[in-house]
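PROTEIN DESIGN WORKSHEET
SECTION A - STRUCTURE
LENGTH: 320
TOKENS:
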């Protein structure tokens, strides 16, 4: 309740003077999620939506619009009225789609105005408990001794799991084969069944299998170790310097949205990430909370687009 009161006080303090001239929000807000309900994007969106609804007294409607790697939802938001009533919870795919798709229905990042980063999610390099290599160094040595023999699973071409493995190949100089699946669940199932050698899996998806003894983590892709798996080294500690990957989630609106609206949304998003309930839920999932300014997110998005472009090209991945 303290967060709700804080947000209400903030809204009143910042909006009172201009309320009659330019009331915001003037109607329900639509928060577009570029993937199906139940996923990580959806989880974050519903928490944010609930907070904004309570703070402003206007419904925040979460709408899931999957398809084309998230570009359908992004196109919808890019073409929406720039008045702050249509938001996108963008993610990793938002930065890599320009490199994956020959024809884009919008321009990234030009057609969007960032609001705030929310969280990042690291990945884990996982194998089965019986896999011969017990460390990343042993895995790399094993792969170099058997070029093209080892394989890795992913949830599809151009996904975070796929590109994390391609980055791993580039950094270590190994030759391992990509086996794409239609989703993370079947990929993980085949990994646990011994049909593929390894996988870069998102933290929240891998953690239950690791805790249950069905998978073993060799390294985490973040720059620091995880509180929930303190014994698992980072890639740098495991002998792959300069390696870091993972996914991120952030809020955006159409380009041209008034700056005062963006600032109100940024302030509300930042306050939401400070809520004890939000922190507890995100920590349980293994997310790192990283709120910031619109400028922080704009800088990050441009860097991500540039960073992954050569990796996508080297992988040969295409999504059309």
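SECTION B - SEQUENCE
RESIDUE ASSIGNMENT:
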């Amino acid at each position: 309740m303290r967060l709700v009161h804080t947000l209400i006080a903030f809204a009143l303090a910042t909006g009172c003077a201009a309320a009659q001239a330019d009331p915001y929000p003037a109607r329900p807000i639509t928060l577009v999620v570029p993937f199906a309900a139940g996923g990580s994007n959806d989880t974050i969106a519903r928490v944010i939506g609930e907070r904004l609804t309570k703070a402003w007294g206007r419904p925040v409607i979460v709408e899931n619009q999957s398809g084309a790697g998230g570009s359908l939802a992004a196109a919808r938001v890019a073409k929406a009225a720039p008045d702050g009533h249509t938001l996108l919870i963008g993610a990793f795919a938002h930065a890599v789609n320009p490199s994956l798709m020959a024809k884009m229905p919008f321009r990234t990042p030009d057609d969007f105005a960032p609001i705030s980063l929310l969280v990042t999610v690291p990945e884990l390099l996982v194998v089965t408990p019986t896999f011969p290599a017990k460390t990343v160094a042993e895995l790399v040595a094993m792969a170099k001794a058997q070029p093209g023999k080892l394989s890795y699973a992913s949830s599809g071409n151009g996904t975070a799991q796929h590109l994390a493995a391609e980055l791993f190949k580039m950094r270590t100089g190994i030759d391992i084969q990509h086996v794409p699946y239609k989703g993370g669940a079947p990929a993980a199932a085949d990994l646990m069944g011994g049909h593929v050698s390894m996988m870069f899996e998102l933290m929240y998806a891998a953690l239950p299998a690791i805790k249950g003894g069905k998978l073993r983590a060799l390294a985490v892709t973040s720059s620091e170790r995880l509180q929930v798996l303190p014994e698992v080294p980072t890639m740098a500690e495991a002998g792959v310097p300069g390696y870091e990957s993972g996914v991120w989630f952030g809020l955006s609106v159409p380009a041209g949205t008034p700056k005062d609206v963006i600032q109100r949304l940024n302030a509300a998003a930042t306050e939401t990430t400070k809520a004890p309930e939000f922190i507890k839920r995100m920590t349980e999932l293994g997310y790192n909370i990283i709120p910031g300014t619109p400028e922080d997110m704009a800088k990050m998005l441009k860097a991500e687009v540039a960073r992954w472009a050569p990796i996508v090209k080297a992988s040969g991945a295409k999504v059309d």
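SECTION C - NOTES
The chain is about 40% helix and 20% strand.
The two ends are 46 Å apart (CA to CA).
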